[in-house]
């Protein structure tokens, strides 16, 4: 749902009772991995990731010690989920590799289902929805062999997430219902609450399409179910889960009910206040707490109580500002609301101050996203590399199997030949005919062996050429995109420095210049990548000494017709260094002192 806070999952900390059970000497050590995994999930959903990771690692140690590979894969999947929540993508990749390695060594369908779920989290990180669906379906096929409603509900919920992103109303409804049916078979009432929320979203799609009041009633029905679970099972549903459900209810009243409906207003204020009350002084829930204040501010504004509306927004601002880690998206909502509030009140100075803060947090989000994208690219490269290696290993295994069959055939033929020779000793009259047949058989086998060896060599050469082509294409694409990314980063840094120093910035002029540069750069990049894809190969072929990546980057800048000053700015070096680098490259290319390096490079690209 749209509004101050989007629907999310949470879990209640029931850690104390589990810790007591785990610490009990009477509990068999082999029973502890399952308890530790449950404890890790409680900590993870409560956002206590340090304790969650510690419990999961302890579960891994004990599980592997007793060869309980099912719980080991579950623990590694939990570690993958923790790293996903922390956006530590390199560690996420390691955890996923570990869980898949274990799952592939044991014939346990539930272990493989957990491995598939971990893969789903990895591809969710890479924004690869197609592979998310692929591994979700693979995990569900494993559960056809041995059902497990808990991991089935989690996998089905991820399918709901994918199709929700694709706005596929039919699939959203199907997978939300399937996830709920499985969650009802578990005792995880937080998971069940999340599935009820998914069903409310499915009906929200239908309501937006039809405006049928029955669909709006269904939205409210499923949004109220987590609240009912919280009241029915005290201590089994998290305060955070309950608060999120309350905010979703209040947000629905705010979004879909008439502003002059006193009953809807009273219910919305009640539920927003309930969320605020249950999360007061709670750690790691500042964004949810601020969302409740945002909704209360909206209703205070509708009533014309500007002082109360301002008070709620300022309280939300202070809560989010004190959060660690910061919730930048929620903070942007808060400061933009404050800016709009002060603008409507005529206090343009404060409105401008908060709007500047919104810009600042947008920049922080951009920088944060850039760092995350770098991690994603590294993981994507490693994932594709590993997938290629696995494919090569499968081909080699297939080839070895064929060779083994061939050797078996040769062994059988040789054995038969020995028997034949032995029998021919006793049947001298048929000796000549039998020898002739034996020679023909051996000749045919030799031809088959030679032909198979030639085919194997040809296949290996083709694979090597394919790998070389893929690596070269990746290198060309990375080089072209890195050039543009460096240029953009330099421009952004220049603007930031001017803003920090208080200098005036003509944004229209900068944007116009950047549009011209982008058009020229894209045209040149297409020339390198499409019109003349062997540009970098030709440079390396012409070089008498090996060119470094920096040398290739400078050649690309020169091919893009950038002058010495521009290159110096982009590479953050002095113009003198650029000229020295040009001279060094000319030497490596075997050019004379008077030869024109620019003309030489342009000649390669023509």
Any overview of this molecule?
The protein is mainly alpha-helical and 606 residues long.
Query: Structural class of the secondary structure composition?
Result: mainly alpha
The SSE order reads: HHHHHHHHHHHHHHHHHHHHHHHH
For the largest beta-sheet, the strand count, sense and barrel status come to: none
The DSSP helix count reads 24
Radius of gyration: 33 Å
User: How does the overall form come out from the CA principal axes?
Assistant: flat
Q: Which band does the percent of strand residues land in?
A: under 5%
What portion of residues is helical? over 70%
**Distance between termini?**
54 Å
Number of strands: 0
> Could you name the ranges where pLDDT drops below 50 across 5 or more consecutive residues?
1-13
Overall pLDDT: 82
Task: Summarize the topology.
Elements: H1 15-23, H2 32-45, H3 49-65, H4 69-86, H5 89-105, H6 109-125, H7 129-145, H8 149-165, H9 169-183, H10 189-210, H11 213-232, H12 239-256, H13 262-278, H14 286-302, H15 306-321, H16 328-345, H17 348-426, H18 431-501, H19 507-531, H20 535-542, H21 549-559, H22 564-571, H23 575-588, H24 597-605
Brief rundown of the structure:
The chain is built from 24 helices and no strands.
Keywords:
606 residues, 24 helices, disordered N terminus, mainly alpha, single chain
């Amino acid at each position: 749902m749209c509004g101050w806070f989007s629907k999310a999952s949470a879990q209640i900390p029931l850690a104390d009772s589990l810790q007591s059970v785990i610490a009990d000497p009477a509990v068999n050590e082999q029973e502890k991995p399952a308890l530790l995994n449950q404890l890790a999930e409680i900590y993870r959903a409560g956002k206590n990731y340090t304790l969650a990771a510690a419990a999961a690692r302890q579960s891994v140690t004990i599980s592997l010690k007793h060869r309980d590979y099912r719980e080991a894969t579950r623990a590694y999947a939990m570690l993958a989920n923790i790293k996903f929540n922390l956006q530590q993508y390199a560690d996420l990749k390691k955890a996923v590799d570990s869980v898949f390695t274990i799952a592939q060594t044991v014939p346990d369908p539930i272990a493989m289902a957990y491995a598939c779920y971990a893969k789903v989290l990895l591809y969710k990180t890479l924004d690869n929805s197609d592979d998310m669906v692929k591994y979700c379906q693979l995990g569900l096929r494993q559960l056809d062999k041995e059902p497990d409603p808990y991991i089935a509900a989690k996998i089905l919920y991820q399918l709901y997430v994918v199709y929700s992103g694709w706005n596929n109303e039919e699939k959203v409804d199907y997978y939300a219902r399937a996830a709920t049916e499985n969650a009802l078979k578990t005792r995880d009432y937080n998971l069940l609450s999340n599935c009820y929320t998914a069903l409310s979203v499915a009906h929200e799609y239908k309501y937006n399409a039809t405006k049928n009041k029955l669909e709006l009633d269904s939205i409210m029905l499923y949004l109220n179910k987590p609240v009912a679970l919280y009241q029915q099972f005290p201590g089994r549903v998290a305060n955070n889960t309950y608060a999120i459900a309350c905010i979703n209810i209040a947000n629905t009243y705010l979004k879909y009910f008439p502003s002059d409906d006193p009953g809807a207003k009273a219910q919305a204020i009640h539920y927003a206040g309930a969320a605020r009350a249950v999360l007061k002084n709670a750690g790691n829930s500042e964004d949810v707490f601020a969302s409740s204040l945002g909704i209360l501010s909206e209703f205070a504004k509708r009533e014309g109580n500007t002082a109360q509306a301002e008070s709620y927004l300022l309280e939300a601002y202070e809560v989010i500002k004190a959060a660690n880690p910061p919730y930048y998206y929620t903070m942007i909502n808060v400061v933009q609301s404050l800016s709009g509030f002060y603008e409507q009140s005529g206090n343009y100075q404060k409105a401008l101050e908060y709007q500047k803060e919104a810009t600042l947090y947008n920049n922080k989000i951009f920088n944060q996203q850039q760092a995350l994208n770098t991690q994603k690219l590294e993981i994507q490269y490693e994932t594709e590399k590993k997938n290629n290696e696995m494919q090569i290993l499968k081909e080699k295994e297939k080839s070895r199997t064929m060779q083994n069959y061939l050797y078996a055939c040769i062994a059988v033929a040789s054995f038969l030949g020995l028997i034949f020779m032995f029998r021919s000793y006793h049947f001298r009259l048929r000796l000549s005919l039998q020898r002739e047949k034996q020679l023909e058989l051996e000749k045919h086998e030799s031809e088959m062996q030679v032909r198979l060896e030639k085919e194997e060599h040809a296949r290996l050469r083709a694979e090597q050429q394919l790998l070389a082509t893929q690596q070269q294409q990746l290198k060309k694409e990375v080089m072209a995109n890195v050039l543009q990314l460096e240029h953009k980063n330099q421009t952004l840094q220049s603007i930031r420095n001017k803003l920090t120093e208080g200098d005036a910035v003509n944004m229209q002029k900068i944007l116009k210049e950047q549009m011209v540069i982008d058009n020229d750069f894209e045209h040149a990049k297409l020339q390198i990548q499409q019109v003349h894809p062997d540009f970098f190969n030709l440079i390396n072929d012409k070089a008498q000494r090996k060119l470094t990546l920096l040398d290739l980057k400078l050649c690309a800048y020169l091919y893009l017709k950038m002058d010495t000053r521009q290159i110096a700015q982009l590479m953050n070096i002095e113009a003198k260094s650029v000229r020295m680098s040009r001279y060094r490259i000319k030497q490596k290319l075997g050019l004379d002192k008077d030869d024109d390096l620019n003309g030489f490079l342009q000649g390669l690209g023509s």
